Amino acid sequence: MEETVQHFKKRSPKRKQERFGKTISLVATIFIVSIVFSILFFVASRGLRTFTEHGVSAIDFFAGTAWRPGEVSDAGEPLVGAFPMIAGSFLVTIFSALLATPFALGAAIFMTEISPKTGKKYLQPVIELLVGIPSVVYGFIGLTVIVPFIRQIFGGTGFGVLAATLVLFVMILPTTTSMAVDTLNAVPRYYREASFAMGATRWQTIYKVVLRAASPGLLTAVIFGMARAFGEALAVQMVIGNAALVPDSLTTPASTLTSILTMNMGNTVLGTLENDVLWSLATILLFMSLFFNILTRWIGKKGAMK
Amino acid sequence: MTPKKADKIAVNVLYGLSGIIVLILASLLTYILVRGVPQFSIEFFTQPAKTFEVGGGIIIQLYNSFYLLLLTLLISTPVAMGAAIYLSVYAPQNSFTTFVRTAIEVLSSLPSIVVGLFGFLMFVVQFKLGFSILSGALALMIFNLPLLTRTIEDSLTAIPSSQREGGLALGLSKWETVTRIILPAAMPGIITGVILSAGRIFGEAAALIYTAGQSAPALDFTNWNPMSITSPLNIMRPAETLAVHIWKINSEGLMPDGPDVSAGASAVLILAVLSFNLLARYLGKKIQKKITSA
Amino acid sequence: MAVNPEETDLNKKHIVTLNEKEPLAISTKDLHVYYGKFEAIKGVSLEFEKNKITSLIGPSGSAKSTYLRSLNRMNDEISSAKVTGEILYKNVNINDPEVDVYTTRKQIGMVFQSPNPFSKSIYENIAFGLKRHGVKGKETLDKAVETSLKQAALWDQVKDKLNQSALALSGGQQQRLCIARAIALKPEILLLDEPASALDPISTSQVEETLIELKENYTIIIVTHNMQQASRISDRTAFFYLGHVLEYDETRKIFTNPTIQATEDYVSGHYG
Ligand SMILES: Nc1ncnc2c1ncn2[C@@H]1O[C@H](COP(=O)(O)OP(=O)(O)O)[C@@H](O)[C@H]1O
Ligand SMILES: [Mg+2]
Asked: Are residues A52 and A196 located together in one domain of the fold?
């Protein structure tokens, strides 16, 4: 009897194995989580040095329009106004989203509501291929096709917000489309059937029932596209012209946070103001990325409550 | 306008929008291939790049891209696998798990330039690894981890829980069950996921320009001493990849035949990504078949 | 369902116990199972005789599966589940957190509702568990595979394709493979949760025959929805109702002359 008790209470090697497996997989998980926090911490703490170490005022940084790090104004303040890049980033993001959204939604509706078969056979692979094209290739095509094209029509150099918008339009198209497709597919069949049963046409059903039911998800899809546009670096840097000026036209050289970062990070020395302001730009990028993240979560929650 | 007419117009508009997307892709691909493929030649694939002269090749960049890809997959797959196993097998339903999932999602949405800059700060400067393959591979690992973790986790959870129960009921640990029953069964999905991530890694440049660097020192393909700077195996040498090369040529504008080389390199890049895609599908299907049939 | 909950007195029970001549395989004493706040099993005490087949019957949701899963501690895997009371096996309360679940499960095997062979070869499906429990040597494994497949009445059908995927077998064959997989570890008790519910009538009767043969060497506890099946193969039957066992007796008695009205309503309602 005591012996059987011992037999059952003896710790089999499996317990050790289980502890090993749990530990090792937890370590991998914590490793990833700690990377996230290291990124947030190290980038932000560098970025804050502009204000803490170098005493730049937040207003000068966010609202200032003169970006010539290394030089000082007549009043002796460093010229590190980031407004041109902030404006540039927002402009290209908003314009490309405005342009891409109708196409993305149109294609998504086509793939889910009008002709799922054709959609799956032709559009699905097209979308996947568009995702797969590397951003430097988009940049290269922008540089060799779109920029000369704009130059021909509008004059000037061809570089600028318009060129960046057109490149980003194609780049975010697949992101928004595939998320919109998932959202539309998640709308229950019987919504449509109920609407058809009431004599509604296909378009009335899509417009009044399906799109309405899917609106939080579609909004999320658009925001994901915007997040991608806001964070894209090289393709934009190759076509926007990289002049740190507040754009006064869509076809004159401008810049974004990412383009200035890409251009200048290698030309500055760590710890100097010239370098730290770049990290401040990176910090803005980081926080915008978090903001987009929180926004989609918030929309998801609101949508779920409805 | 009658509802019927509105319906007709709407459907036509939708056809139009979808058609334009197909047209955009078709013209992108045509442009790159028509412009790029004629650049292909033996020299193009076997010569090193020339900065100031016509006729340079891409051999070093092409090799660097593959080497970096291999190293990245080697270091990111085990970590992603571990995290995916934790999340699908061990993670309790509590706030810690929610927190972990949120963190991974945040990581996946960070712009790759930010990942690259962090890699610069951490690996190049802090760990003193310099602009090197190793720094680049570590940055690409960060870039790759969130998505790969998710695809692996999805493949694991797609295996019916009855398989898991079957293992546990034999008195096996969860670790044995997941590593020896679930994982092999999920292999088609995992392999597809890994190869698809390879396509993403292969084309990535923003995470690399400040980690693996923007220069491609000459390589001696007969030198297999990993400590030597000219050895292809050396992981401490700077290594411009194909994607970075395209960016570099175009933003510097020094190379006289820059547009031609870029077009050729872009075609190579697209063909590589395309092959990764096809390979992923093919292998996934083939393994699936092997598992279920004989 | 022919049973009317309003007229059923849950306090009136008829539960037999074993006499000295009937050897005990496993028993529960005042077993309660909770899923969070919900009490799924409300105090069940049953004794199972060695080398007999016992059926657990009762309407859907009456906690038959929950009870069965408690017996080999599979409920440990459900984080919200809590099991109190005693499960006595070889005079040891195996419902003790100190008791090693892996040892327990190895001795108390389980077969599930739908066949769940691993996506491995037929041979590996059986050898796998053995290897993981430290059995070595090709000859030993070959022998064990053959014996278990023979016991599960599957050997003749698969002996020429042991290296083929188990997923290519028919449903009935897969389920017998799962039985073979469980008995390969030489458990003393075999728990089966509606093992034939996903099978056609021919496969069902094959599984039933297999179980009757296995009775010689194993104690079998089987959940079934099929009254004919319960009466055909089992020696004793327990009637589960809303987390209680209302009646436990010889199968013949349960089906011809039950003591409790609810049992009668249920078994007759099912014959219809
Ligand atoms: N994992 C679980 N979590 C919560 N409740 C459960 C779980 N499994 C079963 N239940 C509940 O416990 C009761 C008994 O279920 P079950 O044991 O599956 O019954 P049966 O096998 O007799 O159909 C049911 O009310 C069921 O909803
Ligand atoms: Mg059940």
From this structure: no
